[in-house]
Write a structure and sequence with these properties.
Layout (H helix, E strand, L loop, with lengths): L1 H7 L2 H15 L3 H12 L4 H18 L7
């Protein structure tokens, strides 16, 4: 998911990946986001900012993916 988003910057595809991964591995969305952000700490500052924007601006605020199970 990191590499795909970094290369393509397709938010909708990232959303579909998030939902799919959570279903496949029986994870809550907030759990996956925790793993995602933990791994994002190893990214460059610019990439980290893009990942944070994806999670908070798109997943949380715009799509409200973290408000529901």
């Amino acid at each position: 998911m990191f590499n795909e988003f970094k290369e393509l910057e397709q938010k909708e595809h990232s959303k579909e990946e998030l939902i799919s991964i959570c279903k496949q591995y029986q994870l809550e969305r907030y759990q996956f986001i925790g793993y995602f952000m933990n791994n994002a700490l190893a990214a460059t500052p610019n990439d980290f900012t893009n990942y944070i924007n994806l999670v908070f601006d798109y997943f949380f605020k715009e799509q409200k993916l973290l408000d529901q199970a």
